[in-house]
Each structure stands twice: as C-alpha cells, then as structure tokens.
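INFO worker-7 received task bundle
INFO bundle size: 2
INFO processing item 0
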Amino acid sequence: MGILSALPSERYPPKRARRRRPFRSLMLMLLALGLIIPALAGAYLLNLGRIIDSETTKIANAFPDEATRPQPAAATGPLGRGAGSAGAGPVAAGSTAGAGRSLNFLVMGSDSRGATTEEATAGTGSNQRADTLMLVHLPADRSKIYSISLMRDLWVGIPEHGKAKINAALAFGGIPLMVQSVESIFGQRIDHVAMIDFEGFVGMTDALGGVQVNIPAPFVSAHKQTAFSAGPNTLDGEHALEFVRERYAFADGDYQRVRNQQAFVRALLAKNLSAETLLNPVKVHGVISSMAPFISVDSGLDSVTLAALALELKDVRPKDMVMFTLPTGGTGTSADGQSIVLPDPAAIGALSAAMANGTMADYVAANGLAGGN
C-alpha cells in the first residue's frame, strides 16, 4: 500500500488541462453561419420568385405581329457582351435578350375588374381603358431610369382604327394593340409589358406602411371630398389611389393628375429602395405578395429576368429616376366633339431619336426635364 500510495503519478499520470481553441470554435461557428444564412436567403429568394411566377398573370400574346414591329435596339455600352446583343435580328416577343442594350417597358394602370382584365390580356376588345400609361426607358448602361408619361387623351393613330385617344387602344384590341400603338408613335420597340390593377396598387402601398408624398398645393377630391393638405402627406392605399386618380380638382385637369402620379411613383420607389424596406424580409414578402395577384406581365418578364435587371440596376437610386410627361401641342377638340390632347410631332421625333441614339441625358438637359414638366 505504501508503494502504491507513494507513486500515484507513475501509474496514473494527471490529465492534461484541455486546451481551449477559441479561434477554431469561432471559425466553425462562422462556417456554420456561412452555410446556413445563404441557404435561408436562397430559400427566401426562391419563395419570392415562386410568388412572382405563380401569382402574377402571364399575358400569352402581349405583342403584335412581328412584321409590324420596330427592330430591337442594338447592343451598345459596357454591358454589351456576346449573346447580349440583339442588334443582329428580331428578338422573340417578350425576351430581354441580355444586357448591353436599351430596354423599353410599357406600364399601364387600370381600374378594371374581372372579365375586362382577362379580355385585355387575351388581346380582345373590351370596355377597358388605361388610366395610367408610362413608357419606361432603361439606357444600355443602366445608369438611369427614364419614365415618360403619355396623356391618356393623346390623339394619335391607332393601327386599323384611325385617329382616337391613346387609351382607347386597349378597348379596341387589348394589350397587343396598345403596344403596337405606342411602338408606332415612337418608332421604338417595347421589350416588356406590365399592367397593374388599382386594387394591387392599394395593397402594395398598405404593405409598405404607407408612402409619404409632398403635395404642392391643397385640394379636395371631387369623388370622395377628401381634403389633402399641402406638404408631406403619408398616404395609405385608399388615399394614395384617390390622390393619383384625381383630376377634376385641378385647373389643368389631367396634366396635374399625371404630375401627381409621377410624384407618387417617385416616392414609392424611394420607399421600396429604403433600408427600412430592403432589410425587412417580412415587409418585402408582404409587398410582393399583396401586389402580385393584381399584376399582368408578358411571359418573358419572370422572376429570373427581374433578378437580372435588379442586378444591373443595383446602383440606381431614386435621384437617378427621371420622370416627365411627353410634351404635347396643347388641348383641342376632335371632329366628333371629344376633348383631346394634341401631339407635338417635333417633340416626339426628338425623344424617339434620343432613345434610339442613347442620348436621353442630353435630351432631358436640353429641354429642362430633369425635374419634370
């Protein structure tokens, strides 16, 4: 016993103290997070893509016959590489054809319900009118977003229907005829089409928690007698809709309504691109979920295309969005007694040339349109 008790260390050497490896533990934790977070982000983005692709209405025939259409823009600028060029020939209806060329989007707002939306997206006539009509131009370098509003009473030639107000094209022949009419006016190809029902407009605004708009002068809406005060106003969906649709309260009617629509879209873009929104997955999900069921898009404008465009436009901020109304020749009366807005052929020609030549910045500066008109 004495020997055993005297030599404990020889038979049972003491356990070494466990060496702590905080650096290794930290690296393992970071590695785990590095695997988990992208997986969660990927699943989240896939879910958003699923909502966009499954909930939006796809317009099977959004474009007119290819033989009637302008050629797509040629690839120019720093983004144009290889297969991105579309200048060599026609592009399938609705396809983006890659980066490196300018793109044109036709955006319509409508208060249609039920069957009229289905008729318009199917390319048939209906009693539907486009209350809001915007031609959105993305230059080849994606440095800006140009949004040109077209007055809904603009008196133009509707293919195979003679002279009429531009918004009547939707009633005569649905979205394909509207596209053909706008392409005929500018001589520029429309690459993508989107139509949003005003019910989706309301839901999107509410999902963002309201949108703040700076109203230049007070007015009372004619329909609901709602008083809008001058200065910053945070509008919920219903009041936002009332704001962008009002025209009877203004001396210049539809002209001020278009300016109000532009102001709201600018504020909406700022809210969507704010850290408050982009860093809140719940809010992003809510915005997309609330508006997707009320949007109709051409079949080529899917989640993959939108993701690619978002990447190309990642450096664009609200200050880089230029919004103005297509200059017109004033108002007049048609032969059959309609109150109309007269086109300005010289202004349309200059704008068309700027879009085709990639000189929109020069056009805007020369005409003092940076802040609208």
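INFO item 0 finished
INFO processing item 1
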Amino acid sequence: MGTKITLGKALNLGLRRAMEHDPKVLVMGEDVGRLGGVFRITDGLQKDFGEDRVIDTPLAESGIVGTAIGLALRGYRPVVEIQFDGFVYPAYDQIVCQLAKMHFRSQGRINLPVVIRIPFGGGIGAVEHHSESPEAQFAHTPGLKVVACSNPVDGFWTIQQAIAAEDPVIFLEPKRQYHAEKAELDESVTPGPLFASRVVRPGQDVTVLAYGPTVKTALKAAEAAAGEGRSLEVIDLRTLSPLDMAPVLASVRRTGRAVVVHEAHVNLGLGAELAARITEECFYSLEAPVLRVGGFDTPYPPARIEEDFLPDLDRVLDAVDRTFEF
C-alpha cells in the first residue's frame, strides 16, 4: 500500500527523487532554499542537497531563466521555480526567444533540458499577478512542452518525467490544489507516458475536457450531473503542448458533445484550439458546437469576487445543458 500525500508533498518527493537520481539536477528560484519556497514545495531540499544544488536567487526572473539556459548548455538539468504565474513575464523574452529556439537554431545539436515550474490559477484569495493562467502563451510557442498536473499521483511522476525530458518543459502546478485533498501514492507502479491525455471518469452523454485546477471542477460537475441522469465523461488533458487528441476524439465520436473548461480567459484560450481540432476531426459526429467555459475577458479580479470569475460547477452544468438544446 502507498502513503497518502498532497500535491505539494508529491512534488517535493518527485524533486527529491530526481535530485537523488541525477547529480546534474539543480533547483533554483526565489526563496526556494532556506524558506523552502512560498508554497513549501522545495522544503528541506537545500538542507539535504546543499546550497550548490538548491540555489536561492535574486528577485530577477529573466536572470534566473537566463542562468538556467547557461547551466543547461554546460550539461546541467536546472529546475526553475517562478514564484507566481504573473511573475513569469520578465522571463518571457528568455523563454520564447532563447529557451524555445536554441534546439532549432543549432539544427538539433543542442538540447536544453530546463523545467520551469509555475504555480498557476486562482482560488487562493491573492492579489493581482498571483492567480493568472498564462498557459496559452507558452503552448502557442514552438519548441516548448507544456504540462499541467492536476493531482498528487500525477504530480509525483510527471515532475520526474519532465526533468528527465531533453526538451524545455513549462510545468504548471494548480496552486489551490497544493495542500488540498490527499491521494494514495504507490511508487511501485509504472507511470504512464508524460505527454498523454487520460479519461478520469467514463461517461456516455457529454465529453468534458479539463486540466490543472479545473479537473476537480469537472469531476464535481459529473457527480452532480449523474444525480440528474446525465453521464459525463471527464478527460484530464495533462499536457497542453503537445495535445494528445486520440482519447479526446474517441470520446467525442461516442458522445457527440464536448465542453472545455479552463480558468484562463475564453478568448484565444486552449479551448479555442481544442474546439477547432474536434470540429475538424469529428464534424459528422457532433450533435452540438463545442462549448467553452472559462474566465471572463478581464484582468484577474480582486480576491473578494474571484469565485464569480472562475468557472464553477454551475457554469459547467449550464454548458452541458446548452449542448442538449441543439
């Protein structure tokens, strides 16, 4: 039997395993060492691996990522923590213009195995720049892999798989899930592949697509819908670039209806790409347009009204109802 752990603890254990496995793995970021990170994800790592491998950096995201690129060029595998989603923009130039392009620029001769950990999403009652969902901006950039974990078991395995990958990985962690419910981790199992979607609740009537923080929302909606006699199939996308469409298309061909749920703004979000791909591949199977549920097209609001901004159970169920009106 495994032990029950939170997502925060799972990521901590995953980082520890990766550092034990490969001395070239480094962790760096603001307050990741002595403090153990603002969310305590790197707690205890500096004490056990030393200041040369768990590095407290200045408050300078562009410098952090630039340094990580240099370290990767010299054979290291840096894991960078961006303290909050909204703080990633000072490093955006380094990520998009250097990190994402170096492999292509060198005609495949150079690999940059850098993982950039970003706590993302809302629901923690924080101020501006602390609750954003910038995933589409990275998924839109060729040369980057983008992963979004949603639960403790996935967190433990996917952080290790991301560190082992030869390409740069933007690793998104739903911060409101860090210290929420626990799940049982069995380290003896063989994990599935990193870049793969997964059906987390089978159903017959509507396909609901989610990732990161909205997987829990979608599962709650499916439970509520079951009480009304509707069967929702929930798919955790898990990876946003590349998108693993095979389970999605198989599901939609069976249900004929699809709803995409994400916290990011609906306009030009991941839901738009998913809707386009589903429409291209499943046009004759669809009974209704692919509907999107997400944040409104405004900057992230003050904490007091964030629950009105974020997609919730009612908005997901409303979209499910609307798919049956066509």
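INFO item 1 finished
INFO post-check item 1: The chain has a mean pLDDT of 97.
INFO post-check item 1: Residues 7-21 form the longest helix (15 residues).
INFO worker-7 idle
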